[in-house]
Amino acid sequence: MPASWKPVIEPVSADKIATGDFTPEKHIQYEPPSKVHTMKDLNLPENTGISSIAVSEPFRLFSTGAIHRMRAEVLSKCVWDNCQYSSNLAQCQLRGFAAKYAPFVYDTWKHPETLAIISKIAGVELVTEMDFEIAHINISVKSDKQREEEVQAFVEKKAFDEDEGIAGCPWEDNKPIVDWHTDSYPFVCVTMLSDCTSMIGGETALKTGNGGIVKVRGPQMGCAVVLQGRYIEHQALRTLGTTERITMVTSFRPRCPNLPDDTVLTTVRPISNLSELYSQYSEYRLEILEERVRAQLRSFRENKRDGKKIDVKAMKDFIARQEDFLAHMNREMVEEELVTMGSIDDSHLLTAKDDVGKKKRKRVA
To answer: 17 exposed, middle or buried (CB, 10 Å; 0-12, 13-18, 19+)?
Structure first.
């Protein structure tokens, strides 16, 4: 069942919220990212994933008016009452709300122009993963007193470090908003819904192939970052100087049915309505299988018409790949009675240290 924790967040005033449908001419304000980092840049195998692209620098994507519309829908009572979840990775998340409660958010991510922008940055043509993942909201809030105390501590530590000649970042985060994880889906677009003018921190930390950590600065309100998060361990670092940090994470998979779909449900299964999640997962996976079989059948019939012998090895290879595809799908659809809601283990991590790779994580404070 959804969680019941509710933070105090300033609502968007009614006079700032426009009405009407999503229109790209009005609501998209795209400015290309200053840099896009490749898997090679992060010392990760270039043949990993579905694209050579790892992560983009933040880029402008939406207008202020579009963000206000999104916030109004995301923070509505019906979404909070019906779509809130909590886990040991993050305390407050909103999921599976757009199709029913947030038509503006839903139309934004389904629009061909939005998809074209994300696909161009990702280096591969993408579609939204499934309706339940439009979109996942991560929320972190604190009181004005907590904000002031943290900023004061930051200033004092920075001054001390400068006096002592200590190099490095004065803010070493040990309480991330979202702990180390890999995403369940190939690509994500992380959009900032909060005002970050006075924010300190809030970067996304990425583990590199040689054991290092690279930080990508957090986006400003209306800006976004594209990340091939299924194949890169990352965490959202804590912020200072603000009372809220609300991000919208929209997930994507390759449009082409012949590209690998390495989707897993590890990190989303315990924070989802399983009936909806499994239904949508089954539908799109079976559609992929259907397209593959139809293409194979067309090729088979064309060869037969041309008098060619059946290529038994090629057919057996095709069948084996689809068997693996279905076996993977079967493993991900864990029976509901075996799922512990809110509990996400470490099996999704690429560098899990325990023997079985399924050590349960401590709850993030």
So the answer is: middle
Q: What is the DSSP letter of 222?
A: T
Query: How far apart, in whole angstroms, are the C-alpha atoms of residue 169 and residue 92?
Result: 28
Whole-angstrom CA distances from 123 to 43, 118, 176 are: 18, 9, 29
pTM of the model: 0.83
Measure the CA angle with vertex 101, ends 8 and 94; round to 5°.
45
Give the contacts of 310 (CB within 8 A, at least 6 positions apart): 300, 303, 304
Q: What is the dihedral of CA 186, 288, 296, 317, to 10 degrees?
A: 50
- Fill in the DSSP letter of residue 62: B
Strand-pair category, 136-141 with 234-236: unpaired
Rounded-to-integer distance, Cα 364 and Cα 209, Å: 26
Tell me the backbone φ, ψ of residue 162, rounded to 5 degrees: -65, -40
Which burial class, exposed, middle or buried, applies to 231 when counting CB atoms under 10 A from its CB (0-12, 13-18, 19+)? Answer: buried
pLDDT for 161-211, tens place per residue?
444 444 444 444 455 656 788 899 999 999 999 887 777 777 888 999 998
